[in-house]
Amino acid sequence: MLTPRRRGERGQVLLFTGLLFVVVLVGLIAVVGDLLTLSNAAAKARDAAFLGAQAGGSDVDIASAASTDVPSSGTLTLSPAAVGDCHGAALTTDPGSTVSCTVSGGRITVSVTHVVNLPVQLFGRTATVHAQAQGGPAAGTVTAR
Predict the structure, then answer these.
(1) Burial class of residue 125, CB neighbours in 10 A (0-12, 13-18, 19+)
(2) pLDDT, tens digit, 9 for 90 and up, residues 100-136
(3) Rounded CA gap, 77 and 57, in Å?
(4) Are 34 and 43 within 8 A, CB to CB?
(5) Alpha carbon 141 to chain centroid distance?
(6) Per-residue pLDDT reduced to its tens digit, 16-33
(7) Mind telling me which residue stretches traverse the membrane in this protein (predicted)?
(8) Residue-range domain boundaries for the chain
């Protein structure tokens, strides 16, 4: 039985619980929104790095290919145009990113950096996403990280 003093306080716990639930729910939506944006940007950066490595790795120097015994050495030299093809393919895939392509012998390494504007800004206004891939002229030599 409620005393006269307690009668005016009926239902207050329900009200506070409801308000707390709404605040927690809005916070979870904000976290999920930021994480989905970061996940999509990371996938786009990985795709850009992979396609840049594939485009650059397929640019074989024909003069070196004629003089190289591929079955014994297994290495072909990339042409000077490989870096340009790498940049073009990566920037076409992810236009707002910074791309770095380096050639070392028969391998090309692609690094993609993308600054993402977060929609809810719970973890800050922006976040940076990195992706890297390596490729070469032989089939099946592209790896992404």
Answers:
(1) exposed
(2) 998 887 788 999 999 999 888 777 899 999 999 998 8
(3) 9
(4) no
(5) 20
(6) 999 999 999 998 998 898
(7) 12-32
(8) 10-144
Residues in the chain: 145
32-71 CB burial, b ≥16 within 10 A, e <16: eebeebbeebbebbbbbbbbbbbbbbbbbbeeeeeebeee
